[in-house]
């Protein structure tokens, strides 16, 4: 049995583990564009800040491929044949009995804004970080386009490196993808108090300067002078390979509960896949590292003949921004019941639908919050017990007493 | 608000260098003596509510605590000592009857300590209990007369068979926790002796130990049903107890939880009051009637015991009880314990077990009816020496209550009636009762019994005996030290040197 | 092949919420594991890898620590791959050196068994079954024998 995995990131790692659980013999080939073995993309901000070394970036141990008898080919796949073989950039064909597309996404807006200037960089790959490092010097002025999780992690790292920062976002609040207004404000206040500046609710008209960019022009007309521009405005799934092969795509590659695409024998997992979402039951692209791992595993097991069903993507985010923990899970933006604390500041919101917990935001006071988040996955009826979930100290005994399935 | 005349009894000394502010003392004191500052974590203590149970001292992981008598002292006086003052102050503050827990606290002669046991020298040589078997087995129940020919027509009455002559005394579920019953029941079962349910009924979770249980029928008749009677190995009619002779039992409403209520078959939260007399026993004939009703109800298969407090005329009373048909008489001396009793009654009513036991044994022998009942002595048996001396005075076995609880962790703070026992013993509060793990409790109770068994064997061997029956009623093995002639006469023993 | 999984089992019916287990855990994972006073009074208070819960009505207590799930949520969500599971012993361990303090494991753990500190040099900590001790510190100190070490034998396919 020939397994071919296109892409070498976390989804690929999951797939390798999934395949090997069911099939110890079959040959596995990974075709990866990036020259580095599997590294964890979310770690690039920590690498930039110097919190971890290059070696610490890798998601699995150095002998991971050898241990699992995986052949790694560093190349780009340009086409997929109807017999689901992969065609490489040099024309070489790699035959596959089962093919997995774990090709991830591409940063949005980047090409349009960058226009090949060296100091306009994305924040997506290890390569991006190496390039950023080359610009670091005291007093560096940086504009970060994108106030979502990625943009703010880049901001945090650059702040720790002593640069002066302004963050721009079209939305009127930070992390608008996962946080509500109250939580977004808390984060903003916290970062502002550290000296980071923001321009929210305004878009970027242009990035000007040649051969190096020297200012960002906003939709309001304001010009932000800067030495370095980071574009972290979101990512779009790399559907071209699939689309050109006639596979059904929407925003991402559409897959069923076994992570199989519309073409039998071809699977997809990770940031590129549009798989079942946990709460709605409908297909959605939810680009998150742990979900990429899980989807990869499910795809791998199904590819190896061990039928298993993906339990559904539940968006769970957790990070710490300059010491402030910021977490969200599920349907975090809908209206819910909230609790606010000061000294130290904190915010928690629970979202319910038909009495069942469907979403959670926790900023500060996050100790043991997993007990509450787990109720989302268990679809627990929590009506009448909201006060317990909003208590500053999460108490497992009280909460478990009420856990009943929906 | 008028100043309280109450003074602390104890003072907490905290070595701040050793205190790691872990908060164990705070969460383990149901009397809220210790408190932790929520801001800086430091811990302080106020001894006004401290009862001296030493829970915090035992659990403190760095031994940073000492509980010492309150240092402030009033001027010494032979009559008006601290206790006398304290008791008046309490009554002036409250206007109520003073309650107390556990047994008589008087600084009075302990007569066990005035009796000494014999040992063999030269003649009737000692026996080494490590090399020779010691027969400690005891049978409690009515025995046939001395020279009866054992034949098929002879009535043999039901007996309790004990491997050691010590049993666990009656302590009701409600005055003590279910975990206490579980601990004692398990230990009694493994050491092949018996435990007494007390007047609170038999909880379903200890029903399995019914074969080793003596079920009590007290004046409140709590939990008494044909099923209850059938579960026990013997039935004990409780007329009185040493801690409160002449008055009934009292379990305050706070201690009557749902579980206690169910087991006693009364409404939860109500005071469980046992009246002073059994309202169907107004004469010795009535007692006889109840004894035989119980025997009928259990098809004469179980011994029926009668428990009384040791009072004046105890010998005559016991003679009557024996003739009324009881198989076992339990005499509870004035040191007997209780979960709640008026302080004055506890300390001023009743007589010491040493004299009561000797008087009863003598009287029954004189009347030729000693074989009709087994006599069990109870009330302040502290160790195997007290037990051995009791046997020498005539007891067939002894009951231990206080000793058993001390083995489980009781520190004699004597505030059982509050229900805030920090050792999880004299309480039914679920956050406290879990502190006594019955596995540990059973282990400790078992160890106590085994230790006393070994010590009794040593005593017997030392006296050149290999059976406890040889010591039973053998007053010649005792000598009195510092007793008056009259006391020696009543005890029926000679003075040392004689 | 035979596998032996070692777990700490908490019996809530005997737990009295004293918190000595948590204290012992702190001391065992401090620079002075043999000296409780030094451990707790020198520098920062050491981090406990477990906790004790008290119900709001004060009658129930639970000693909570990692239960070494077979399919651990923390392992799946960890962005640095710092959490791994030993197939033979079933033990889930965190490599504290690889932890970057993102707290994903905190929100993932259904038992709430991952602990901070959440400020400063942030790293996630969880029960490691005290590999340096014969008996885990919490089990040894429990005054009511509410904690036990349970060894479960299994067969690895």
Summarize the structure.
Chain B has 498 residues and is α/β, with parallel strands linked by helices.
Q: Layout of helices and strands, plus pairs?
A:
The complex is a heterotrimer of chains A (406), B (498) and C (157).
Chain A: E1 2-6, H1 10-22, E2 27-32, H2 44-49, H3 64-67, E3 70-74, E4 77-80, E5 86-88, E6 93-94, E7 98-101, E8 105-107, H4 110-114, E9 120-122, H5 126-135, E10 141-145, H6 149-160, E11 164-169, H7 181-192, E12 197-200, E13 204-208, E14 215-218, E15 223-225, E16 228-231, E17 235-237, H8 240-244, E18 253-254, E19 266-268, E20 273-276, E21 283-284, H9 289-303, E22 316-321, E23 324-330, E24 337-341, E25 346-353, E26 356-363, H10 370-377, H11 386-389, H12 396-402
Parallel strand pairs in A: 1-2, 1-7, 2-3, 7-19, 9-16, 10-11, 10-16, 11-12, 18-20
Antiparallel strand pairs in A: 4-5, 5-6, 8-17, 13-14, 14-15, 20-21, 22-23, 23-26, 24-25, 25-26
Helix pairs in contact in A: 1-9
Chain B: E1 10-14, H1 24-28, E2 34-36, E3 43-45, H2 55-59, E4 65-69, H3 82-94, E5 99-100, E6 115-117, E7 138-140, E8 160-162, E9 166-168, H4 178-191, E10 195-196, E11 213-217, H5 226-231, E12 234-238, E13 250-251, H6 258-264, E14 272-273, H7 284-297, E15 304-309, H8 314-323, E16 328-332, E17 341-342, H9 343-348, H10 353-366, E18 374-378, H11 384-393, E19 397-400, H12 402-408, H13 430-433, H14 438-462, E20 478-480, H15 485-491, E21 494-495
Parallel strand pairs in B: 9-19, 10-11, 11-12, 12-15, 15-16, 16-18, 18-19, 20-21
Antiparallel strand pairs in B: 1-4, 2-3, 5-17, 6-20, 7-8, 13-14
Helix pairs in contact in B: 4-14, 8-10, 11-14
Chain C: E1 2-10, H1 20-28, H2 36-41, E2 51-54, E3 61-64, H3 73-77, E4 83-85, E5 92-94, H4 104-108, H5 137-141, E6 147-155
Antiparallel strand pairs in C: 1-6, 2-3, 4-5
Can you characterise this structure?
The complex is a heterotrimer of chains A (406), B (498) and C (157). Chain A has 406 residues and is α/β, with parallel strands linked by helices. Helix content of chain A is 25%, strand content 28%. Chain A has three domains: 2-105 and 235-303, FAD/NAD(P)-binding domain (3-Layer(bba) Sandwich), CATH 3.50.50; 109-231, FAD/NAD(P)-binding domain, CATH 3.50.50.60; 334-402, no CATH class. In chain A, the strands form seven sheets. Chain A has a five-stranded parallel beta sheet. Chain A is globular and about 60 Å long. Chain A starts with a strand and ends with a helix. By secondary structure, chain B is α/β, with parallel strands linked by helices. Helix content of chain B is 30%, strand content 15%. Chain B has an eight-stranded parallel beta sheet with strand order 9-19-18-16-15-12-11-10. A three-stranded mixed beta sheet of chain B has the order 6-20-21, with helices on one face. A two-stranded antiparallel sheet of chain B has the order 1-4. Chain B is globular. Chain C has two domains: 1-65 and 128-157, Alpha-Beta Plaits (2-Layer Sandwich); 69-126, Alpha-Beta Plaits (2-Layer Sandwich). Helices cover 19% and strands 20% of the residues of chain C. In chain C, the strands form three sheets. Chain C has a two-stranded antiparallel ribbon. Chain C has a two-stranded antiparallel ribbon with strand order 2-3. A two-stranded antiparallel sheet of chain C has the order 4-5. The longest helix of chain C is centred in the first third of the chain and has 9 residues, at 20-28. Chains in contact: A-C, B-C. At the A-C interface, helix 9, strand 22, strand 23, helix 10 and helix 12 of A face strand 2, strand 3, helix 3 and helix 4 of C.
């Amino acid at each position: 049995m020939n397994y071919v995995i296109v892409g070498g990131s976390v989804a690929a790692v999951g797939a390798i583990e999934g395949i090997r659980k069911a099939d110890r013999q079959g040959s596995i080939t990974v075709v990866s564009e990036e020259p580095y073995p599997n590294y964890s993309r979310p770690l690039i901000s920590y690498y930039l800040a110097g919190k971890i070394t290059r070696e610490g970036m890798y998601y699995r141990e150095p002998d991971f491929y050898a241990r699992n008898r995986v052949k790694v080919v560093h190349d780009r796949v340009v086409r997929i044949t109807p017999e689901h073989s992969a065609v490489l950039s040099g024309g070489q064909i790699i035959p596959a009995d089962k093919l997995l597309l774990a090709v991830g996404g591409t940063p949005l807006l980047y090409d349009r804004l960058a226009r090949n200037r060296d100091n306009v960089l994305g924040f997506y790959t290890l390569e991006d970080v190496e390039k950023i490092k080359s610009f670091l010097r005291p007093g560096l002025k940086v504009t970060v386009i994108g106030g979502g999780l990625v943009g703010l992690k880049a901001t945090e790292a650059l702040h720790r490196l002593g640069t002066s920062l302004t963050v721009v976002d079209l939305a009127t609040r930070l992390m608008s993808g996962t946080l509500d207004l109250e939580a977004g404000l808390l984060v903003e206040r916290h970062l502002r108090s550290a000296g980071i500046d923001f321009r929210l609710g305004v878009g970027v008209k242009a990035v000007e300067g040649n051969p190096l960019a020297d200012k960002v022009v906003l939709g309001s007309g304001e010009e932000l002078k800067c030495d370095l521009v980071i574009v972290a405005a979101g990512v779009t799934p790399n559907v071209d390979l699939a689309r050109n092969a006639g596979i059904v795509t929407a925003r991402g590659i559409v897959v069923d509960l076994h992570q199989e695409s519309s073409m039998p024998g071809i699977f997809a997992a990770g940031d590129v896949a549009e798989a079942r979402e946990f709460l709605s039951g409908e297909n959605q692209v939810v680009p998150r590292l742990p979900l990429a791992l899980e989807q990869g595993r499910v795809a791998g097991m199904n590819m190896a003949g061990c039928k298993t069903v993906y339990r559904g993507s539940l968006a769970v985010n957790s990070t710490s921004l300059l010491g402030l923990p910021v977490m969200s899970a599920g349907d975090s933006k809908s209206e819910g019941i909230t609790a606010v604390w000061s000294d130290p500041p904190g915010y928690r919101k629970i979202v319910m639908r038909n009495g069942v917990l469907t979403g959670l935001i926790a900023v500060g006071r996050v100790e043991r919050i997993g007990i509450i988040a787990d109720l989302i996955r268990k679809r627990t009826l929590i009506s009448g017990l909201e006060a317990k979930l909003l208590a500053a100290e999460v108490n497992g005994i009280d909460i478990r007493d009420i856990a009943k399935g929906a | 608000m008028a100043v309280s005349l109450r003074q602390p009894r104890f003072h907490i000394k905290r070595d701040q260098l050793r205190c790691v502010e872990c908060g164990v003392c705070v969460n383990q004191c149901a009397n809220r003596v210790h408190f932790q500052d929520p801001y800086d974590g430091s811990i302080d203590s106020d001894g006004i509510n401290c009862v001296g149970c030493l829970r915090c001292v035992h659990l403190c992981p760095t031994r940073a605590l000492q509980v010492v008598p309150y240092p402030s002292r009033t001027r010494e006086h032979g009559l008006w000592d601290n206790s006398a003052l304290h008791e008046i102050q309490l009554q002036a503050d409250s206007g109520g009857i003073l309650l107390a827990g556990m047994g008589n606290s008087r600084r009075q002669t302990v007569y066990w300590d005035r009796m000494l046991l014999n040992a063999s020298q030269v003649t009737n040589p000692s026996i080494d209990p490590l090399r020779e078997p010691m027969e400690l087995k005891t049978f409690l129940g009515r025995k046939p007369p001395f020279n009866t020919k054992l034949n098929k027509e002879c009535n043999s009455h039901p007996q309790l068979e004990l491997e050691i002559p010590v049993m666990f005394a009656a302590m009701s579920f409600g005055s003590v926790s279910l975990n206490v019953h579980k601990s004692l029941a398990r230990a009694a079962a493994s050491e092949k002796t018996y435990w007494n349910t007390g007047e609170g009924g038999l909880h379903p979770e200890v029903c399995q130990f019914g074969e080793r249980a003596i079920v009590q029928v007290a004046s409140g008749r709590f939990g008494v049903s044909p099923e209850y009677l059938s579960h026990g190995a013997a039935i004990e009619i409780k007329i009185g107890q040493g801690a409160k002779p002449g008055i009934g039992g009292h379990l305050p409403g706070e201690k009557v939880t749902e579980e206690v209520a169910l087991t006693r078959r009364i409404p939860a939260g109500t005071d469980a009051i046992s009246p002073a007399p059994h309202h169907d026993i107004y004469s010795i004939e009535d007692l006889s009637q109840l004894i035989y009703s119980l025997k009928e109800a259990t098809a004469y298969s179980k011994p029926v015991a009668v428990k009384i407090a040791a009072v004046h005329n105890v010998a005559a009373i016991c003679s009557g009880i024996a003739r009324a048909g009881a198989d076992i008489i339990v005499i509870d001396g004035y040191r007997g314990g209780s979960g709640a009793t008026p302080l004055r009654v506890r300390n001023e009513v009743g007589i010491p077990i040493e004299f009561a036991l000797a008087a009863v044994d003598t009287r029954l022998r004189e009347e030729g009816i000693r074989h009709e009942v087994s006599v069990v002595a109870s009330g302040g048996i502290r160790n195997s020496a007290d037990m051995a001396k009791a046997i020498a005075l005539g007891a067939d076995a002894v009951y231990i209550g206080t000793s058993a609880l001390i083995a489980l962790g009781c520190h004699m703070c004597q505030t059982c009636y509050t229900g805030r026992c920090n050792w999880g013993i004299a309480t039914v509060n679920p956050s406290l009762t879990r502190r006594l793990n019955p596995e540990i409790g059973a282990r400790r109770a078992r160890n106590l019994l085994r230790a006393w068994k070994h010590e009794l064997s040593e005593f017997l061997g030392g006296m050149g005996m290999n059976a406890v029956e040889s010591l039973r009623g053998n007053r010649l093995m005792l000598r009195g030290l510092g007793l008056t002639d009259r006391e020696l006469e009543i005890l029926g023993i000679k003075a040392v040197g004689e | 092949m035979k596998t032996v999984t070692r777990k700490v089992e908490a019996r809530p019916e005997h737990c009295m919420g004293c918190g000595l287990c948590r204290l012992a855990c702190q001391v065992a994972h401090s620079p002075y594991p043999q000296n409780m006073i030094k451990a707790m009074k020198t520098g920062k208070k050491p981090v406990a890898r477990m906790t004790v819960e008290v119900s709001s009505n004060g009658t129930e207590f639970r000693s909570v620590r990692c239960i070494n799930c077979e399919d651990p949520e923390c392992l799946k969500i960890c962005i640095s791959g710092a959490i791994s599971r030993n197939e033979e012993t079933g033990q889930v361990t965190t490599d504290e050196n690889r932890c970057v303090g993102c707290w994903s494991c905190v929100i993932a753990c259904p038992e709430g068994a991952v602990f901070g500190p959440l400020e400063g040099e942030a790293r996630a900590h969880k029960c490691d079954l005290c590999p340096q001790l014969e008996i885990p510190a919490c089990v040894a100190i429990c005054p009511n024998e509410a904690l036990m070490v349970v060894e479960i034998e299994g067969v690895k396919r």
